[in-house]
Amino acid sequence: PFPAELLGQREYIDIGKGVFTQICKFCHGKSAYPGKAPKLNPSRYTPEFVFNRVTNGFRGMPSFKEQFTEKERQGVVVYVLSKEFSN
């Protein structure tokens, strides 16, 4: 399970925002639509769901397990589920 105590932590939000900006926004960002990847709907996601997708990939989305550390992948989860995330 995803460590709930990480949610909302500034350090993880900043890490996740950096990773999202570097990699994720090209398929999941505002300017990526239509057609690249699904628009993210954080209100429907659990932390475990997001972490699993970032870590293991899904369909056309690659796994980022080897590219990013666990802390960076956790940061993506915290950022996407934070109030700062805008998609």
Approximately how much helix is present in the residues? 40-55%
Mean pLDDT: 92
**Shape verdict:** globular
Label the structural class: mainly alpha
How many distinct helices?
3
Biggest sheet descriptor: none
Radius of gyration: 12 Å
Distance between the termini: 25 Å
| N-to-C series of helices and strands | HHH
Low-pLDDT stretches: none
What share of the residues does DSSP label as strand, in percent? Answer: under 5%
Summarize the structure.
The chain is an all-alpha fold and 87 residues long. The protein has three helices and no strands.
Can you characterise this structure?
This protein is an all-alpha fold. It contains three helices and no strands. The protein has helices spanning 10-28, 47-56, 70-80.
